[in-house]
Amino acid sequence: MMRTLIAVFLLVFVFTAAQADENFRNRLNTELTSGAYTAEDIEAEIHFGRELASKVLGRYPAWDNSKVNLYINKVGQLLVENSQRPELTYRFLALDTDEVNAFAAPGGYVFITRGALDQVANEAELAAILAHEIGHIEHRHYVEAVGLRASQGDLESGLTTMLMGGGATAAIAFDQAVNAMMEIFFETGLQSHEDEYEADQTAVWLLTLVGYHPGALKDFFERVQSQAEQEAAGISRTHPSFADRIQRLESELTTNQLDQLELATLEERLHENLK
Amino acid sequence: MERVSVLGGNEENQMRDVRRRTSAITTAAAARGLASSRRQQDQGGEHPSDYPAVELMESFEITREQLDEFASALQGARP
């Protein structure tokens, strides 16, 4: 039985890897050169993400703990090894707040709160939260949400063009986009719940590819759902219900038989670095 | 067990080339962002900013050796 499961998993893995490889080649040939996402789009995304990161850090202070931040960066960089966006430099930082949440600014800026770190039971769960946020960046969910790209067939009217052009119009458009993103982060969440489910799904596969327990994100949601309603109010307000996300994750895990894999959780290493 | 990668050998080399090439984009964007951010900081805004904290965030660097050592705990777990 186990042999069959492993064979099925390897088939899925090989297919996924081949597909990812194909995606990478496509991007290399199109998005980084002359396709849908131009070099200017990417530059604007990083510029915008950096500005948004400064606003997140204006709201919540950085957790002044270099040991924790170094650890988070190591876990994050392991996941990014499987990134399909090699043009980005991913960065990770802990925020000093009790609120249980995590954020991903476009361009590769990923945050996790101290409250969320208090809730994770092992390194796989920490990786799961970071992987979900990486998923948002990989799929350009926020880039699409604020129209941060040159519109296809209408390159002159895109926000990217305005940002790169400079001037008063660019400054206004930039500020409006930043404010819209802050509202998405802290008030409304992404309009499409499918984006959240897609980031969850990406997290499952990133975890598996690196060698972490594929069900770690589901485990984390189950714990947060039952233990910390008040602290997790931010997530509840801006994301689909935990019940729906858990159900979707269970489906992803069982459909692909990932729930049969016993991969690493690394509880002890988490405690060595966080507790 | 060998390290699992999405990309094969040639593709990994390609990926490194892309990272080198696109790092110029990243650097340019960061530089542009820094200058622009400081201008906007002077103007204030609806949400306060903390640019030194962004620079702290950008200061963490993990070497290849550190990452390989860190990843070794997962090697036996990979499918």
From TrEMBL, chain A:
Cofactor note: Binds 1 zinc ion per subunit.
InterPro entries: Mito/Outer_Membr_Metalloprot (IPR051156), Peptidase_M48 (IPR001915)
Signal peptide: 1-20
GO MF, any single term: metalloendopeptidase activity
Domain Peptidase M48: 69-251
Segments forming a coiled coil: none
Any single Gene Ontology cellular-component annotation: membrane
Cofactor(s) required for function per UniProt: Zn(2+)
Entry's Gene Ontology BP terms: proteolysis involved in protein catabolic process
UniProt KW keywords: Hydrolase, Metal-binding, Metalloprotease, Protease, Signal, Zinc
The keyword Ribonucleoprotein is annotated on this UniProt entry: no
Taxonomy, superkingdom: Bacteria
Family in the record: Belongs to the peptidase M48 family.
The name this protein goes by in its record: Peptidase family M48
UniProt organism field: Marinospirillum celere
